[in-house]
Amino acid sequence: xxxxxxxxxxRADLAAGRTTSAALTASALQRIxxxxxxxxRTFTRVLADxxxxxxxxxxxxxxxxxxxxxxxxxxVSVKDLFDVxxxxxxxGSVVLRDAPPAAHDAEAVRRLLAAGAVLVGKTNMxxxxxxxxxxxxxxxxxxxPWQRGERRIPGGSSSGAAVAVADGMCVxxxxxxxxxxxxxxxxxxxxTGFKPTARRxxxxxxxxxxxxxxxxxxxxxxxxxxxxxxxxLSGVSEAPRTQHLRQARFAVPTTLVQDGxxxxxxxxxxxxxxxxSAAGAQLVELAVPEFDELAAINAAGGFSAAESWAWHAExxxxxxxxxxxxxLSRILRGKDFTARAYLxxxxxxxxxxxxxxxxxxxxxxxxxxxxxxxxxxxEALEADxxxxxxxxxxxxxxxxxxxxxxxxxxxxxxxxAGEAPVGLSLAGLPMRDAxxxxxxxxxERTLRAxxx
Length: 452
Known about the structure:
Layout: H1 7-16, H2 21-33, H3 39-42, E1 43-46, H4 48-63, E2 75-79, H5 107-114, E3 118-123, H6 159-166, E4 172-176, H7 183-189, E5 192-195, E6 216-220, H8 223-234, E7 249-253, H9 263-278, E8 282-286, H10 294-297, H11 302-319, H12 325-331, H13 339-360, E9 366-369, H14 378-383, H15 385-405, E10 408-413, E11 423-428, H16 433-449
Helix pairs in contact: 2-4
């Protein structure tokens, strides 16, 4: 499997003249096109000609001394629910395949291009982003880089985004995150995935799942790559902070988020906590009973069901037979969602957010396993509906807490080399993104320095 490429390393090579954007882009496109690789399942649309033109233009600007941002000349991808002018956003579905092409770029895409990034293509995903597993019966499911011969799930819904980074088809990907769609695949594929406070990044020009929960997420090899992407997408140009773990005080919730861990995730999570504690971080085990309330609050399908039904109702009437049945069944849960139930849900969320903020507000963030399981095999989930439902619920459980909070979170690899990938999640309250990214950088340094 081709190795993932660090955004910062590629940026340094460009700055030093050791490579060109044209060369980086050609390499990325070659990996996408490799018939022995996952490219055909990873991308729904490869923009090869456009990418090569953008790369040559970037090289010309660099020769003239113009570098528009840290993303200048770097190959990136976007999830195929973002509008790209002249292209159709399929959102991983065949029912949108013949929809008119977008007239304008999504705001996130516009900002990437204005920053000099080279867009190599649009990545595959769970249909309409409605699952945390990454399976797609229409365009195929790209296999996780870990034990590739076993063909394990990449995680979802931003499945192609993760595999594109993991296989060196780009240096970073833009996805969405409604209940963990960027962090779950990052955790399962051994990458770093960041979900910002939703209002920090533009959400215009994309196919929605739930406007109450949707956020624009990013994936890269490491924290520095996510920081660079975040700076461009959010428009926040403040200097990176420096944090030291000996000054940190993190909560470690004992309610819900550690339930049902498999043996490998449990051991790896505890090992990571021990390393952070040894580095000086104060870790406080804490019951958060509010976490246990979420299942009941969202028992009728929550915002995702209600808001996706509102968007899909007419499309389902015309083309419902073309949907993935597992996705369609989840959307249809919103059909009987009443206005009263929706208003009650909004009030419950606001009350829940206030109580969680009061309990966790004194901490610099909270730590939990991103997901409780290592990636299972694709075939097993395709063949067994009950297992599909159970594993999907398990994968979404921890990340979705952050979306319901409208907080920020990052998933960091915490496994040893050669082991099954495991993500350590650092989560924070809304608009604490900059501090969270700074803490994440020191957590990353500590875990790498103490790795086996």
